Amino acid sequence: VQRAGFDSRTRRVLLGVDSPPRALGCRPSAPAMAARDDSKDFYKVKRVSFFGRKDVPIICQNENGPCPLLAIANVLLLRNAIALEGSPDRPEVSHAELMSLLAARLLDVNDKSTSRDEMVRQNQEQNLNDAMAVLPTLATGLDVNVRFRHPLDFEFTAELAVFDLLDVTLVHAWVAAGPEHAEARDAIGARSYNQLMERLIELATAEEADPTSLSSSETYAKGTKEEDTSSAEDAALRAALALSLDEAAIETVSETPTSPTSRAVSAALDEVVAEVSAETAGDDKKRGDEDADENAPVSAATADEAARDARRRERFLLDTFLESSASQLTRAGLRDARDAVKERELAVFFRNNHFATVFRLDGALYLLVTDQGYLSEPDVVWETLCEAEHPKRNAAEEGAFVDAAFAPFAPRADESARERETRRNASAEDDARLAAALLASAAETSGGGRERTNKSHANDDADAIPETFLRAGEPRASANDGASADADHALAVALQAEYEEEREREEAAARARRAEAAAATRPPPPPPPRRSGASSSRRGALPPRSKKSSYSSGDS
Fold first, then answer.
1. pLDDT digits (tens, 9 = 90+) for 69-78
2. Which residues share a beta bridge with 358?
């Protein structure tokens, strides 16, 4: 049987497996449980700040780790109720050490009963013994059975006694609350998750055994809609018939009595109305007699149909609720869970078969980030799980990370990028020095005319090149050395030319910038003096003298 809304365990029961549905909870797979070795289980430790305390250790969650154990341990570590032994900056903690710390804490806070009632004292001792017995199950997973009435509603088991004895609140947000789940809340009632699964199996079995029942809740919803449509059509037909009778009666009364034709038509209409009324009354009487005769069998059939409709309706509501809250959380339930945790209280939050540490501050609920992937990110400490009813202006949105001061997480600037830029600039200068050094080295090894040709370049860069930067060894009398020297010389010339071109471009750009700046700050030139028209005309009549003639006359 494959149905939406049933989990894998429920499907196995419907297929004939007799095992009942198991409770929810965080439990590793069978191979992981079989391969567990306490001496080899280690968890990373992250240091955070918490209300003035620095370097507070929290345990990070590794793959398929024991989430109930780590959630409880982190609550006690943040409360400063337990402390890790050894070096304060130890990077890991073992599974065996965490179990011993929790066991010691259980014994310390419950060794003496504060009640004088003998029955209460014995009950507390029994709970302590049960908790110590089930303490190892925190490492392999924990089965919890939630109820859907409020966030603190769980079926009490020996496993949950550990939370009570350690004074750790356990909450969930899988609550049938809000107007959208009002009918589902009535259908669920006080049932737990296990009881709800069993009820769904009973409804599915009864539906399959009844040949007249519908196949699914979706078909029931469709049939309900069709019945509503049919009823609406019948009502419309009856309204049209009544309206036609009313119009005939109105026309009969409003006709002028002085006309013979009108009186004849009025009499005919009166007869028709009387006949229709008599037939209607007779039909009603006949129908009443038939209903009276068949009252007993019809009542039984109606009762059976009503029971089937009630089962279909209940199954439809339960399936709809489970499908709409498949993540084991409802929006109204999340708000109820936020309100159930006290201000500045550390608690354990159960959702989606996972246990996590939560903390409430300023009306908002925060989730402790214990994923090992954020181990090296010191500013990612909490995640906003539910906003406050009246959030502050700079409060983080739901799902956003916050730091140890509960301020929104801001990624740091990439320091490595700045370092790369600095190295890139330094590398450009080193390349220039290398080019000059290679040029000088090639000139020294090649000798002759090439040495004289490049002597000026070597002298120009002598001040910029350290004496011990890069020098070639003594020249060797071989053809390979000559070819190598020529290749080095060619490379040096190319690098030197590239460096000089780059320097010339930079100098030209600098000169252009200086010229633009000077032009922007220079005052405008004064206007030329005015001259008389006669002198202008005489001057304009003379032919212009060229610069060449003026220079030649000056020389002469």
1. 999 999 999 9
2. 347, 367
